[in-house]
Design goal:
Layout: H1 11-24, H2 34-49, H3 53-91, H4 99-114, H5 126-134, H6 141-152, H7 175-216, H8 221-240, H9 244-263, H10 276-289, H11 304-357, H12 371-375, H13 380-447, H14 452-466
Helix pairs in contact: 1-2, 1-14, 2-13, 3-13, 4-11, 5-6, 5-11, 6-7, 7-8, 7-9, 7-10, 7-11, 8-9, 8-10, 9-10, 9-11, 11-13, 11-14, 13-14
């Protein structure tokens, strides 16, 4: 994304700033003018009215409604497929074997597609293995499933004498792939966090070294241009390597130090910060924005409003990486949610097969008979098993296939749309965050209380922050 928070200026603000540029060119002489006072006051009043929050909140609410509607559409579509199959099982299929054979074929076909095997034969049951994995609360589900299936999965056997072809999964997922994806997501996140922590420590050491050099009197301007180069390098690395943790950690470190500088700055912008770390931040600000001077005696601290603009830009950079991080986390959550959905598919299909196996088969059903006969049987055990089979088979759809397809069709695309919305929100906030201190200064200038050179300083900061110090 292009990092240019100062998108398009309102006409009034642009005119006001151009007026300020001309006035600043007059040097230190400033003659109070009522028209300038009115223009700058109007600019501040108009900017204070700008409220972008409602615009972005409305769009976020729209995306929430869209997600609900699209989830409902997916649930309705797959729910109709589920109900059609269940109705066929209840009513039977004239001219075909009884519906117990049809149900067995469905269970076997879906299990082979999703789990790679059916467990309707003797041996361990997949649903029991899943329960065992869920019981390992100290381990992620993916690791627990991989461990249990590796150690006990060989005991799972398919039904003998039944050759049912694999059926396409309604949500297109497999248990093995979902486990691998979930494990890989965790490993990748931990790797990126470690890399970001190392980058943060490197940058903090470089900032401290600059402060130490200042304290010892050995620092040069190159010290801070190098610090700026390192900052930009890390931000670029964060983008190129899709590692938002780097940008977040490094930006947060600099904002913390900038807050410390602002805290020791006199409201009038005149101070003599003895702290070498504060002077180091002045050096960075000068290298990045061309204002302030860490080497003068005493150090020349940028005006608080200029520092506020710098902070707005740095906060924007930090928030952008936080937005990227939120997007990465949302994608990872979807990966884990897909595993949970696929696990539910296997769990309930396995339970349906287990219940099917316990139905009393001694009374033969006439050709084409459905489960309705079994549900209405005089044998309580048969009624319970038949009802359980239908319930678990339906649950495999309701709690497994449907949620997985909602993730595929709805959640994943909306992650990108929400990320774009958040980036726009942050750009708007940065736009206001940078303009308000500048326009407040212009209004004070219009009142006759600000040195014109301060206007030039603010315009310098605004101009450079608008192109994000070359980091795009």
């Amino acid at each position: 994304m292009e990092t240019a928070p100062l998108g398009a200026f309102p006409r009034l603000l642009m005119v006001t700033i151009l007026v300020a540029v001309n006035l600043a060119g007059c040097g230190s002489l400033y003659l109070r003018d009522d028209s300038v006072k009115q223009a700058t006051a109007n600019a501040k009043a108009e900017l204070d009215k700008v409220n972008l929050v409602a615009v972005f909140d409305d769009e976020a609410a729209y995306l929430d409604r869209l997600q609900q509607d699209e989830n409902a559409a997916v649930a309705e579509s797959l729910g109709a497929q589920r109900d059609r199959v269940l109705l066929t099982m209840l009513q039977g299929r004239p001219g075909n074997p009884d519906t117990r054979v049809f149900m067995a074929a469905r269970i076997d076909g879906y299990l082979q597609a999703v789990a790679g095997k059916s467990d309707r034969g003797p041996g361990a049951k997949l649903w029991r293995l899943i329960d065992k994995a869920r019981g390992q609360t100290r381990k992620p589900l993916a690791d627990a499933l991989a461990e249990v299936l590796k150690s006990d999965g060989s005991q799972v056997q398919g039904p003998k004498g039944v050759d049912n072809p694999e059926l396409p999964s309604p949500s297109g997922n497999t248990l093995a792939q979902a486990i691998a994806d979930s494990q890989a997501a965790v490993v990748q996140r931990e790797k990126k966090q470690a890399e970001a922590k190392a980058a943060q420590e490197t940058f903090q050491k470089q900032l401290k070294a600059a402060a130490d050099d200042l304290a010892a009197g050995t620092a040069r301007q190159e010290t801070f241009t190098g610090l700026l180069a390192k900052f930009n390098e890390l931000l670029k690395k964060a983008k190129d390597e899709s590692n938002p943790y780097i940008g977040e950690f490094v930006s947060a470190s600099l904002i913390e130090e900038l807050d410390g500088l602002i805290a020791v700055t006199d409201p009038k912008g005149i101070d003599e910060p003895a702290d070498s770390k504060a002077r180091a931040v002045i050096g960075f600000v000068h290298a990045a924005f061309g204002v302030g001077d860490a080497f003068s005696d005493p150090p020349r601290v940028p005006h608080p409003n200029a520092l506020a603009v710098v902070k707005a830009w740095l906060t924007y950079r930090a928030n952008l990486t936080s937005a990227d991080l939120a997007q990465a986390q949302a994608k990872e959550e979807v990966v884990h949610a897909k595993l949970a959905a696929v696990t539910e598919q296997v769990y309930y299909l396995s339970r349906a097969g287990d219940q099917l196996a316990s139905i009393d088969t001694s009374p033969a059903l006439e050709k084409g008979a459905g489960f309705a006969r079994l549900v209405a049987s005089n044998n309580a055990a048969t009624r319970q098993a038949a009802t359980g089979t239908l319930h678990y088979f339906a649950s495999a759809w309701t709690k497994g296939f449907i949620p997985a397809q909602q993730l595929n069709e709805v959640a994943v695309p909306l992650i990108e749309r929400r990320a774009s919305l958040q980036q726009s929100r942050l750009a708007g906030e940065a736009w206001l965050g940078e303009l308000k201190p500048a326009v407040a200064t212009l209004a004070a200038y219009g009142e006759g209380g600000i040195d014109p050179h301060l206007i030039a300083e603010l315009l310098q900061v605004l101009g450079i922050s608008a192109i994000a110090v070359g980091v795009n």
